[in-house]
Amino acid sequence: MASPLSASAFLDALRKEGLTVVEVGDWRHHNRNHKGAWGPVHGVMIHHTATEGSARTVELCRKGYSGLPGPLCHGVITKDGTVHLVGYGRANHAGLGDDDVLRAVIAEKALPHDNETNTDGNRHFYGFECENLGNGQDPWPPAQLAAVEKAAAAICRRHGWTERSVIGHLEWQPGKVDPRGFTMTWLRERIRDRLK
User: Which of 107, 129, 159, 178 is the most exposed, having the fewest neighbouring CB atoms within 10 Å of its CB?
Assistant: First the structure.
């Protein structure tokens, strides 16, 4: 169990991992905390946006859309590998997911199959949305994949977590497919190697 990093510590962790970070508006105070607690945090969740165009994607993740107000994550990782910070605190990214998965993340054990939606993930996960159409054909540039790895590793490093604290949305909530285009097993192996 961990308290969320302060916004400054979050930013510092990302920069120390070698990431290019852009601060968007008043990201430090843009959140959904009025809808419920943020924390304790237990892991990092990776998503794809199903959008194209970096500026449009960042704006959408910051503001949200009808029926799902922003922020939709903490950081948006665009195709060029830049991390755009759009919010900090509770964000509308994880939704309801499987409590068995959460227990496995906390214990840093292999994940069970997600088969229910009974636990608030927005409370317990940092979220990174990654610019990609999510159709399995849109490429993931090397700079972007490296940034996804570094961003997740930065948070794990600061909290003392292993790569098993990083999950995809598809591992949390039944019916979700993101991120599509690489496997979470592959990403966790890269994060594990980076954390050595």
Answer: 107
The model's pTM:
0.98
Residues 6+ apart with CB under 8 A from 47: 73, 93, 127, 128, 129, 130, 168, 169, 178, 179
153-196 per-position pLDDT tens digit = 999 999 999 999 999 999 999 999 999 999 999 999 999 999 99
Residue spans of alpha helices (H) in 27-76: 54-63
Q: Is the pLDDT of residue 18 over 80?
A: yes
- Following DSSP, what letter does each residue of 86-119 receive, concatenated? ---SS-TTS-EE-HHHHHHHHHT-PPPPP----E
CA 135 to chain centre: 19
pLDDT at 1: 67
* 187-193-195-196 Cα dihedral, nearest 10 degrees: 160
- Is there a contact between 90 and 40 (Cβ–Cβ < 8 Å)? no
49 pLDDT higher than 70: yes
In 3-state terms, what secondary structure has residue 84? strand
Contact (Cβ atoms closer than 8 angstroms) between residue 161 and residue 108 = yes
- The answer to whether the CB of 122 falls within 8 A of the CB of 93 is yes
How confident is the model over 35-64, as a mean pLDDT? 97
DSSP string, 128-151: EEE----SS-S---HHHHHHHHHH
